Structure formats: structure tokens, C-alpha cells
Amino acid sequence: MLHTREEREQLERDHLAPYAATSGNSRGRLHEEPQHPYRSEFQRDRDRIVHCRAFRRLEYKTQVFVNGTADHYRTRLTHTIEMAAIGRTLARALRVNEDLTEAIALAHDIGHSPFGHCGEKALDELMRDEGGFDHNIQSLRCVEMLELRYPEFIGLNLTWEVRAGLRKHLASRKGEELDGLPIGPCQYIEAQIADVADDIAYQAHDVDDGLEAGLITETQLRELELWRRAEERALKRWPDLPEDRRTAAVIRHLLDLQVEDVLQTSSSQLEKHDPQSPIDAMQCGERLIAFSPELLAMLKPYRAFLFENLYWHADVAGANEEAVRMMRRLFQFYVDHPEEMGRKARARLASEGRVRTACDYVAGCTDRYAIEEYMRFGLDTEGGTDR
Prior knowledge:
Blueprint: H1 5-15, H2 41-50, H3 53-57, H4 76-93, H5 98-107, H6 116-126, H7 135-146, H8 160-165, E1 177-178, E2 181-182, H9 189-213, H10 218-221, H11 225-237, H12 243-273, H13 278-282, H14 293-311, H15 314-336, H16 343-346, H17 349-364, H18 367-376
Antiparallel strand pairs: 1-2
Helix pairs in contact: 2-5, 4-5, 4-9, 5-9, 6-15, 9-12, 9-14, 11-12, 15-17, 15-18
């Protein structure tokens, strides 16, 4: 027997917590559409994100290591998938909407530039006089105007809840609204979960890649309390594991430690504030989904270690700096030669101008496409190209 949308909506009403967002009570889409017979509104959002071009391009965008360095290092896509899985675990345990959490998680990085945070910083500098560049805002541009898949509207026409969830850096601004409705000072529980899941994912998996690359060692990590706690857990359960498998077990417990802490802390916060609706959660005076003060104290030196020894390691920084140098020249080339951008980008020149259109185009490039374009236009030669 078919499971209808109406039945799914009823299951949400019956089983989710009162502070959870339900698809049947969504605030809707900017452009009204007929509802789907078998999929809820948030399921449709998730599917639209997964099927869009910007999502597919994440496969070839840097997480830590420039794409192509090795096949098994994480990319923006694998990070996003891992983050979404963590988000679903948190959402299910806290009895909120898994589909909404997953949709926000899957879309959170689709506006990210090539070449990781170094690429984002470079684009922000290049766009200083044009409003700057932030990958969170760019993700919104992707879902709201850059993706062209439907005949009735531009963008993906996602629900208000997903679009609000992608505005995490705007929610804390006083009076911030979306479609005339407030989105702060906090956000819906599902958006808060997606935000924390992002931190959990990179805090476990970036160190995994760093160890695999030989840029950091377990001896160094044992100076950090968070790592020691995860290792103690792993060795208590599997005391005789060989070294290669022990590392994977420690990473697994590093994830578990963070997830368990967030669940316990958030459960206490929810009990303390007792929100009776998604709006109550959004308008609460403090975040309801969070790490405990104890874990945050352990995370501070842990994060500092990652920046000093991994993200700014000479091998990583050197490769990223060279890639960013290429990206800067490519950006300027497109500003000077807008006819060389793709057809859809050229169609936005009249409304967006050369600089912002070039920014959108470069931000949408994968690592390898940006490098290929740089070489194709002869930008690697002295003085560049005469085109």
C-alpha cells in the first residue's frame, strides 16, 4: 500500500516533539506550487538540493586538501554527506524533523568557493568593494537565483524553513526577517542541529585526513584531552587493535563523544526552556542545541591545534596559496572578458554586473575546472593572455 504525503504529515504530528517543524505546517514557498502526492514539503526540498548542479560540484571542491591530491581525502561533498548523517542522528534522538535537518545540511556548503577557506578569503578580498563574499550567503544565492531548473521560477523555490535555516549568520541580527517573518534571534531546532553537525563532522574527519596525510601524528594529538578521552574509550573496548585500525576506532569515538555531549546538553536545554512550538525555540534567549561548557573547553585547544598544525601546515597552505593565486587571475580574467563565461552567467551581466557575475561564476567552479580554465586561457604564462 502506498504511503501518502498526508499520512507522512500525520506521522510527524503524532511523533515529533512540539518544538519540531512539521512539513504540514510549513510556511510555504515563495512561489506557490501544488503539493506532491507522496513526498512531504521538506522531502521535496532535500531532493531538489541533491539534484541541483551546485550540489554535484561539491565532489570536486576542497575540504582541506586541494581536490585531486588523493582519492580518499574528503571533499566538500563527502563532508556534507557525513554532516547530514550526523544531523539526522541528532534530529531523530531529539524528536525533530529529520528531513528538514537533512535539507539544510545538504545545502549549507553549495555556495562554497573552490580551494576551501583560502579560496573564500581570496574572493572576499576581491569583492571588498562589491559587498564581499561569504559562502553562506552564496549558498542562498545558489538556491534562490543561480540554479535554473524549473520553468515557473528561478532558483529551487525551497520552503521558508530551509531558506531560513541557511541564514544562520543573519539570524542573530536584530529584526532580521525572511519574507516579512522573523528568523531569530536563534533559529528553528533543525537549523541549530545542522550548524552543530557541521562542527562535529569537521572536528572528527579533518583530523582523520590529516593523520592519513602524515601532517599530524597521534603523539601530538595525545597532548589534547579530547583526543585522549576518545582513545581511552577505544582502547577500553578493543585493547589489542593493531595501530591502523585503532586510529579509525578513535575517530569513531571522537564522533560519539561529541554527539553524546550535544544530545545531553540539548536535552537539558530543551527541558529548561520547554518550547512548545518552533517559534518558541527560535525566539528563545539562548541556543538550545549546543556543546556543554566542559566539551567546549576541550574543543578550544583542539581547534587551535588543527589550525596551527593542519590547516596552516606548509604543505596544505602552500598548495592552497598557489591555487588561490590562480583563482585570483581567473577572476580578473572573467571581469575583463565576460564573454568567456558560460551562457547562464552571461545572461546575468545586465542585472548583476561584471564583478558580481564573475564572482558567482568563479565561486561555482570546482577546483579542477578553475585550474583547467586557468590553463586554457594561458594565464600561467607571463602576462597572461591577449584575448
